[in-house]
């Protein structure tokens, strides 16, 4: 039974160490995304083209036979 208490204490200590390491890495900017903003501007045009084709479709007049369906 004593080994369970010892393993529990060791696992809590290891978890605390990993949590502190995670907090320090976040504060130092390890997880800051510096790549996506530079690539996002390359894909903005595709989104605008898709929206313009959707808006062009919605501006077409609805024919009477289409309304009956």
Number of helices, where a helix is a run of at least 4 consecutive DSSP H or I residues: 3
- Encode the helix/strand succession as letters: HHH
Are there runs of 5+ residues with pLDDT below 50, and where? none
Q: Main beta sheet: strand number and arrangement?
A: none
The end-to-end distance, rounded to whole angstroms, is: 75 Å
Beta content comes to: under 5%
Radius of gyration: 28 Å
Number of strands: 0
**Shape designation:** elongated
Q: Kindly report the average pLDDT value.
A: 77
Helical fraction equals: over 70%
Structural class: mainly alpha
Structure report:
By secondary structure, the chain is mostly helical. The chain contains 3 helices and no strands. The longest helix is centred in the N-terminal third of the chain and has 26 residues. The chain is elongated. The chain starts with a helix and ends with a helix. The relative contact order is 0.05. The mean pLDDT is 77.
Question: Which terms summarize this structure?
Answer:
69 residues, mainly alpha, 78% helix, 0% strand
């Amino acid at each position: 039974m004593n080994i369970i208490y010892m393993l529990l204490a060791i696992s809590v200590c290891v978890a605390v160490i990993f949590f502190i390491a995670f907090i320090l890495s976040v504060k130092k900017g390890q997880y800051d995304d510096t790549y996506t903003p530079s690539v996002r501007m390359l894909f903005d045009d595709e989104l605008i083209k898709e929206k313009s084709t959707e808006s062009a479709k919605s501006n077409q007049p609805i024919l009477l036979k289409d309304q009956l369906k």
